[in-house]
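re the bet — no i am not wrong, look at it urself. input seq straight from the record:
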Amino acid sequence: MTSPKLEQLYDELRQVDAGTHPRYLKRLRQIEDLCQEQREREDIAHELAVERIEFEYKKRKQQTQDELEKKEKELIQTMLADLDEMEKRIEWEYTNMEVSRICSANVIDSTKKTLRGRGGVLIEPPTYFNATPKPATPNITPDTRYLLTDSEIAEDNQRLFEVILVKQKLTYDGKVYKQGEEVHVENMEYGKFPAKMDCITDTVVSFKSTLPWDTRQIHASYSDLTEGRVQISKKRAN
Protein backbone atom coordinates (compact mmCIF):
# COMPACT_ATOMS: atom_id res chain seq x y z
CA MET A 1 0.00 0.00 0.00
CA THR A 2 1.37 3.36 -1.00
CA SER A 3 2.11 5.94 1.59
CA PRO A 4 -0.50 8.52 0.40
CA LYS A 5 -3.24 5.91 0.57
CA LEU A 6 -2.19 4.86 4.03
CA GLU A 7 -2.04 8.44 5.12
CA GLN A 8 -5.61 8.97 3.86
CA LEU A 9 -6.84 5.98 5.83
CA TYR A 10 -5.15 7.24 8.99
CA ASP A 11 -6.72 10.62 8.41
CA GLU A 12 -10.19 9.08 8.05
CA LEU A 13 -9.60 7.05 11.22
CA ARG A 14 -8.77 10.20 13.12
CA GLN A 15 -12.00 11.79 11.78
CA VAL A 16 -14.00 8.78 12.97
CA ASP A 17 -12.45 9.02 16.42
CA ALA A 18 -13.17 12.74 16.52
CA GLY A 19 -16.72 12.30 15.19
CA THR A 20 -16.12 14.51 12.18
CA HIS A 21 -16.08 11.95 9.40
CA PRO A 22 -18.38 13.10 6.54
CA ARG A 23 -20.17 9.77 6.19
CA TYR A 24 -20.66 9.61 9.96
CA LEU A 25 -22.06 13.15 10.03
CA LYS A 26 -24.38 12.37 7.11
CA ARG A 27 -25.74 9.27 8.79
CA LEU A 28 -26.11 11.14 12.07
CA ARG A 29 -28.18 13.84 10.36
CA GLN A 30 -30.41 11.17 8.82
CA ILE A 31 -31.01 9.60 12.22
CA GLU A 32 -31.77 12.99 13.77
CA ASP A 33 -34.24 13.78 10.97
CA LEU A 34 -36.00 10.44 11.48
CA CYS A 35 -36.14 11.06 15.22
CA GLN A 36 -37.61 14.52 14.69
CA GLU A 37 -40.25 13.18 12.31
CA GLN A 38 -41.19 10.45 14.78
CA ARG A 39 -41.47 13.01 17.58
CA GLU A 40 -43.72 15.21 15.44
CA ARG A 41 -45.97 12.26 14.57
CA GLU A 42 -46.27 11.36 18.25
CA ASP A 43 -47.13 14.98 19.14
CA ILE A 44 -49.85 15.06 16.47
CA ALA A 45 -51.26 11.73 17.67
CA HIS A 46 -51.29 13.04 21.25
CA GLU A 47 -53.12 16.22 20.25
CA LEU A 48 -55.70 14.23 18.28
CA ALA A 49 -56.26 11.90 21.23
CA VAL A 50 -56.73 14.87 23.58
CA GLU A 51 -59.21 16.50 21.17
CA ARG A 52 -61.18 13.27 20.83
CA ILE A 53 -61.35 12.81 24.60
CA GLU A 54 -62.47 16.41 25.11
CA PHE A 55 -65.13 16.01 22.41
CA GLU A 56 -66.49 12.82 23.99
CA TYR A 57 -66.45 14.43 27.43
CA LYS A 58 -68.38 17.50 26.26
CA LYS A 59 -70.83 15.34 24.31
CA ARG A 60 -71.60 13.08 27.27
CA LYS A 61 -71.79 16.04 29.62
CA GLN A 62 -74.34 17.74 27.34
CA GLN A 63 -76.38 14.54 27.06
CA THR A 64 -76.42 14.15 30.83
CA GLN A 65 -77.44 17.78 31.27
CA ASP A 66 -80.24 17.43 28.69
CA GLU A 67 -81.55 14.30 30.41
CA LEU A 68 -81.43 16.05 33.77
CA GLU A 69 -83.38 19.04 32.44
CA LYS A 70 -85.94 16.71 30.87
CA LYS A 71 -86.39 14.81 34.13
CA GLU A 72 -86.73 18.10 36.03
CA LYS A 73 -89.44 19.31 33.64
CA GLU A 74 -91.33 16.02 33.92
CA LEU A 75 -91.07 16.14 37.71
CA ILE A 76 -92.28 19.74 37.82
CA GLN A 77 -95.23 18.94 35.55
CA THR A 78 -96.14 15.93 37.68
CA MET A 79 -95.90 17.98 40.87
CA LEU A 80 -98.01 20.76 39.37
CA ALA A 81 -100.63 18.24 38.29
CA ASP A 82 -100.66 16.70 41.78
CA LEU A 83 -100.96 20.14 43.37
CA ASP A 84 -103.79 21.06 41.02
CA GLU A 85 -105.62 17.84 41.85
CA MET A 86 -105.06 18.40 45.58
CA GLU A 87 -106.28 21.99 45.31
CA LYS A 88 -109.44 20.92 43.50
CA ARG A 89 -110.05 18.16 46.03
CA ILE A 90 -109.66 20.55 48.96
CA GLU A 91 -111.94 23.07 47.25
CA TRP A 92 -114.53 20.35 46.65
CA GLU A 93 -114.37 19.19 50.28
CA TYR A 94 -114.57 22.78 51.54
CA THR A 95 -117.58 23.50 49.31
CA ASN A 96 -119.38 20.39 50.53
CA MET A 97 -118.58 21.33 54.12
CA GLU A 98 -119.99 24.83 53.62
CA VAL A 99 -123.15 23.45 52.00
CA SER A 100 -123.62 21.02 54.88
CA ARG A 101 -123.06 23.79 57.40
CA ILE A 102 -125.60 26.07 55.72
CA CYS A 103 -128.20 23.32 55.47
CA SER A 104 -127.82 22.36 59.12
CA ALA A 105 -127.94 25.93 60.43
CA ASN A 106 -131.08 27.00 62.31
CA VAL A 107 -133.23 29.53 60.48
CA ILE A 108 -135.03 32.03 62.71
CA ASP A 109 -138.43 33.17 61.55
CA SER A 110 -139.18 36.67 62.87
CA THR A 111 -142.93 36.26 62.25
CA LYS A 112 -143.48 33.17 64.41
CA LYS A 113 -145.42 33.41 67.67
CA THR A 114 -143.83 32.83 71.07
CA LEU A 115 -145.15 32.25 74.58
CA ARG A 116 -143.98 34.07 77.65
CA GLY A 117 -143.59 31.93 80.76
CA ARG A 118 -142.89 32.75 84.35
CA GLY A 119 -140.27 35.38 84.98
CA GLY A 120 -140.68 36.74 81.48
CA VAL A 121 -138.80 33.84 79.89
CA LEU A 122 -139.78 33.29 76.28
CA ILE A 123 -141.03 29.81 75.53
CA GLU A 124 -141.01 28.82 71.88
CA PRO A 125 -143.16 25.93 70.79
CA PRO A 126 -141.19 23.22 69.04
CA THR A 127 -141.37 23.74 65.33
CA TYR A 128 -139.39 22.76 62.27
CA PHE A 129 -137.12 25.77 62.86
CA ASN A 130 -136.30 25.52 66.56
CA ALA A 131 -136.60 21.81 67.26
CA THR A 132 -133.30 20.06 67.84
CA PRO A 133 -132.52 18.40 64.52
CA LYS A 134 -131.40 14.83 64.50
CA PRO A 135 -128.03 14.42 62.86
CA ALA A 136 -128.25 12.63 59.55
CA THR A 137 -126.72 9.20 59.56
CA PRO A 138 -124.02 9.16 56.91
CA ASN A 139 -124.14 6.43 54.36
CA ILE A 140 -120.90 4.53 54.89
CA THR A 141 -121.82 1.58 52.73
CA PRO A 142 -119.16 1.40 50.00
CA ASP A 143 -120.24 1.33 46.40
CA THR A 144 -119.05 -2.07 45.19
CA ARG A 145 -120.51 -1.93 41.71
CA TYR A 146 -117.21 -1.00 40.09
CA LEU A 147 -114.74 -2.82 42.36
CA LEU A 148 -112.44 -5.44 40.85
CA THR A 149 -112.47 -9.03 42.02
CA ASP A 150 -109.48 -10.50 43.87
CA SER A 151 -108.40 -12.45 40.81
CA GLU A 152 -108.56 -9.34 38.62
CA ILE A 153 -106.51 -7.35 41.14
CA ALA A 154 -103.88 -10.10 41.34
CA GLU A 155 -103.70 -10.29 37.55
CA ASP A 156 -103.26 -6.52 37.23
CA ASN A 157 -100.52 -6.44 39.86
CA GLN A 158 -98.45 -9.03 38.00
CA ARG A 159 -97.90 -6.98 34.86
CA LEU A 160 -97.01 -3.54 33.66
CA PHE A 161 -99.20 -1.74 31.18
CA GLU A 162 -97.88 -0.56 27.83
CA VAL A 163 -98.41 3.20 27.58
CA ILE A 164 -97.60 5.63 24.77
CA LEU A 165 -98.41 9.29 25.40
CA VAL A 166 -98.58 11.84 22.63
CA LYS A 167 -100.49 15.09 22.48
CA GLN A 168 -104.26 14.46 22.48
CA LYS A 169 -103.82 10.67 22.03
CA LEU A 170 -103.06 7.80 24.40
CA THR A 171 -102.20 4.20 23.58
CA TYR A 172 -102.93 2.09 26.66
CA ASP A 173 -102.50 -1.67 26.76
CA GLY A 174 -102.81 -1.93 22.98
CA LYS A 175 -105.91 0.29 22.72
CA VAL A 176 -106.00 3.84 21.38
CA TYR A 177 -107.83 6.60 23.27
CA LYS A 178 -108.41 10.15 22.11
CA GLN A 179 -108.92 13.37 24.02
CA GLY A 180 -112.60 13.89 24.85
CA GLU A 181 -113.40 10.16 24.73
CA GLU A 182 -115.59 8.72 27.50
CA VAL A 183 -114.06 5.79 29.37
CA HIS A 184 -114.06 4.06 32.73
CA VAL A 185 -111.20 5.12 35.01
CA GLU A 186 -110.16 3.58 38.32
CA ASN A 187 -107.71 4.19 41.15
CA MET A 188 -107.42 3.22 44.81
CA GLU A 189 -108.80 6.52 46.12
CA TYR A 190 -111.92 7.02 44.03
CA GLY A 191 -112.65 3.50 42.80
CA LYS A 192 -114.04 3.04 39.30
CA PHE A 193 -116.32 5.60 37.66
CA PRO A 194 -117.27 6.82 34.17
CA ALA A 195 -115.18 9.76 33.04
CA LYS A 196 -114.14 11.84 30.07
CA MET A 197 -110.51 12.16 29.00
CA ASP A 198 -110.40 15.91 29.49
CA CYS A 199 -106.77 16.52 28.54
CA ILE A 200 -103.90 14.40 27.16
CA THR A 201 -100.33 15.76 27.16
CA ASP A 202 -96.94 14.12 26.76
CA THR A 203 -96.75 13.42 30.51
CA VAL A 204 -100.21 13.63 32.12
CA VAL A 205 -103.75 12.46 31.32
CA SER A 206 -106.65 14.22 33.08
CA PHE A 207 -110.02 12.56 33.69
CA LYS A 208 -113.30 14.19 34.78
CA SER A 209 -116.36 12.29 35.92
CA THR A 210 -119.29 12.38 33.49
CA LEU A 211 -121.87 11.93 36.24
CA PRO A 212 -123.78 15.21 36.81
CA TRP A 213 -123.43 15.11 40.61
CA ASP A 214 -119.84 13.85 40.65
CA THR A 215 -116.84 16.20 40.93
CA ARG A 216 -114.15 13.52 40.97
CA GLN A 217 -111.07 14.18 38.86
CA ILE A 218 -107.90 12.16 38.32
CA HIS A 219 -104.60 13.41 36.89
CA ALA A 220 -102.58 10.33 35.91
CA SER A 221 -98.87 10.52 35.13
CA TYR A 222 -97.01 8.15 32.83
CA SER A 223 -95.84 6.02 35.76
CA ASP A 224 -99.37 5.92 37.23
CA LEU A 225 -100.61 4.34 34.01
CA THR A 226 -97.73 1.94 33.39
CA GLU A 227 -97.62 0.67 36.98
CA GLY A 228 -101.40 0.28 37.23
CA ARG A 229 -102.12 2.89 39.91
CA VAL A 230 -104.60 4.36 37.46
CA GLN A 231 -106.38 1.99 35.07
CA ILE A 232 -108.73 2.78 32.22
CA SER A 233 -110.99 0.75 29.98
CA LYS A 234 -113.20 1.36 27.00
CA LYS A 235 -116.77 2.30 27.77
CA ARG A 236 -119.09 -0.44 26.58
CA ALA A 237 -121.78 0.55 24.14
CA ASN A 238 -125.29 0.16 25.52
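see?? The helical segments are 3-18, 22-104, 150-157, 222-226. told u. also The longest helix spans residues 22-104. so pay up
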